[in-house]
Design brief:
The protein has 171 residues and is of the alpha/beta class. Helices cover 39% and strands 15% of the residues. The protein has helices at 31-43, 54-63, 80-90, 105-113, 126-133, 153-167; strands at residues 23-27, 47-51, 68-72, 95-100, 118-121. It has a 5-stranded parallel β-sheet, with helices on both faces. Helix 2 runs parallel beside helix 3 (80-90). The termini are far apart.
């Protein structure tokens, strides 16, 4: 029986200090979704803690403030919007992504006003969540060059109607 040499410490995931991994707090009352997202984030090297409600999340954040938080909008008890506010009060540097199955423009606006980094519809996978955390790091969009000579939609419709009438023998 041949024994393989031990993995070099640089490749051994246990050799990476816990302090070097970004910490993520996943808050969702859906046990299956919460645990699957947490597992996917752990597989990507994140230090993940979970909470099933806002109260548990607030307690966890006071014990050790997360760098990132994924918050469900609708949970029993305190809402996700209230939790965003509380997490930002505990640590303004915490980046928060709000997830919801009940999306609306007004709740997305409220979440952003309270300090959320981004807002995603559920279900969202780990890659979408991680991409949402970096949305605020992207440069602003540049102005798109527009063709001011282009025919307006209304004018185009009027011209087509006029041609159709002329083709049919009307004016």
């Amino acid at each position: 029986m041949t024994t393989l040499p031990a993995r070099p410490p640089s490749l051994d995931s246990s050799a990476v200090s816990e302090q070097t991994k970004p910490s993520v707090l996943v808050v969702d009352d859906d046990d299956v979704f919460r645990e699957r997202l947490a597992l996917a984030l752990r597989d990507r090297g994140y230090d993940v803690r979970t909470a099933e409600d806002a109260e548990g999340a607030t307690t966890a954040a006071r014990e050790e403030s997360p760098e990132l938080a994924v918050v469900d909008l609708r949970m029993p008890g305190m809402s996700g919007l209230e939790l965003v506010r509380d997490l930002k009060e505990i640590d303004p540097a915490t980046k928060v992504v709000v997830l919801t199955g009940y999306g609306s423009i007004s709740t997305a606006t409220d979440a952003m006003r309270l300090g959320a980094t981004h807002y995603l519809p559920k279900p969202a996978n780990a890659d979408e969540v991680l991409a949402a955390f970096t949305k605020d790091e992207l440069p602003p969009l540049e102005a798109i060059e527009t063709n001011t000579d282009a025919t307006s939609l209304a004018r185009g419709e009027r011209e087509k109607t006029k041609r159709d009438l002329e083709d049919a023998g009307g004016r």
